[in-house]
Amino acid sequence: MSRPVVVGVDGSPSSLAAAEHAAWAATLRSLPLHLVHGYLHPLGSGVPLNPYDLGLPEPSDEGQRMLERAAAELAGRWPGITVEFRQVAGGPGASLVEESGRAELVVVGSRGHGGFAGLLLGSVGTQVSAHARCPVLVVRPTEAPVPVDGPVLVGVDGSELAELAVRQAADEAARRRAELVLVHIRTDHGRAGPDEVPAAADQPLVAAAADVQGSHPGLAVTQRVLDTADPAAALIEASGEAALLVVGSRGRGGFAGLLLGSVSQALVQHAHCPVLIAHPHGHAR
């Protein structure tokens, strides 16, 4: 059975933009699209007012109607795509992490309300990005059409998860028939222009390019070295020319702690294009 593309939907403009992008991602992959809305107890905490009243949270009619409208609109705009939808009990972070064990890709908006309030701006975002068992695509910006034309950028630092990010970025570039740009951040060398030939210290970049050219012959690959003390700012600036920025969930060197601290929050909140957080595929526990 094919793994679906899963998107968290709460009716907010951000989540609907994410759903549109998820439909495109599902079409590129020839996979079904699943819309998921997480719900809690009506009080919001999932805990009954009376501790002896063990009532369970229930799906809402409003949430169901919202999902039905979104599914119908997406199916109309993307002929041939299979769209399913459902409400799931639980917090948004836990719900999406659980869904990720059966998904090819989880897509979320950078802001939301209701069942996905604060998604990827606080504890929920940390939970999903750290524990998802498949890649996570954060769709931003939300105030303008999501860019789909342009290269795919990926951060390279030689770590194992960065290598995974490069593989997933290469796959995505091939699907989109786009250029792949490998970006290596140097924080401890002299000034270098973006077109500088990689030096010995940039061996991870050279190795990554060789791996991609071996696995994806014919794919246009560019190597860039950015010499900066602020990796987040450099990547944010570079994202202005890209359709997608791909990063590992952890790294070393210029990408140390990426997507677990301030750098991750900066990318998710300020990148000029969607951000794909690379994760290996796993299984729901």
Structure overview:
This protein is of the alpha/beta class and 285 residues long. The protein has helices at 13-29, 61-77, 92-100, 123-131, 160-176, 203-215, 231-239, 262-270, and strands at residues 5-8, 33-39, 83-89, 105-109, 136-139, 152-155, 180-186, 221-227, 244-248, 275-278. Strands 3-2-1-4-5-10-9-6-7-8 form a 10-stranded mixed beta sheet, with helices on both faces. Helix 3 (92-100) packs parallel to helix 4 and helix 7 packs parallel to helix 8 (262-270). It is globular.
Q: β content, as a range?
A: 15-25%
Helicity, as a percent range: 25-40%
Biggest sheet character = 10 strands, mixed
Strand order of the largest sheet: 3-2-1-4-5-10-9-6-7-8
Task: Please identify the structural class as seen in this structure.
Answer: alpha/beta
Spatial extent as radius of gyration:
19 Å
Layout of SSEs?
Layout: E1 5-8, H1 13-29, E2 33-39, H2 61-77, E3 83-89, H3 92-100, E4 105-109, H4 123-131, E5 136-139, E6 152-155, H5 160-176, E7 180-186, H6 203-215, E8 221-227, H7 231-239, E9 244-248, H8 262-270, E10 275-278
Parallel strand pairs: 1-2, 1-4, 2-3, 4-5, 6-7, 6-9, 7-8, 9-10
Antiparallel strand pairs: 5-10
Helix pairs in contact: 3-4, 7-8
What are the key terms here?
single chain, 10 strands
What is this entry, summarized?
It contains eight helices and ten strands.
